[in-house]
Amino acid sequence: MTADEIIETLKLEPHPEGGCYIQTFRDGDGDARGHSTAIYYLLKAGERSHWHRVTDAAEVWHFYAGSPLKLRLAKDGEEGREIILGLDLKNGERPQAVVVANEWQSAESLGAFTLVGCTVAPGFEFSKFEMAPPGWEPAG
Fold first, then answer.
1. How far is CA 75 from the centre of its chain?
2. H helices within the chain, ranges in order?
3. Is there a contact between 29 and 92 (Cβ–Cβ < 8 Å)?
């Protein structure tokens, strides 16, 4: 499938950080926030997830389809790191990556598109989401 076919099939919508997404799950017992949430997230070639962080929850990225994804991570005042999400395990790619609470993150597809999932616990809330200013890069 093409990226556009996946977007149509999964009913993905534009995400404020870039790319397209849809929330697929919110767990909870009447708690408005939920214990956890899950989304599908797709980046096309040339798109990127702009630097952002979830201030009070961990996020787990899961690789599903397409080209590998470069995930850049950085904590305030520390040197950043990169994880390549994908299935070429022999060459260091991994199908899963963890972003701890309050860690800056940015992602981009290394090909035509990448489809991933993101699980956040406790559940994702836009009130706990911080986007970095345009052009911002982590120190270090």
1. 16
2. 3-10
3. no
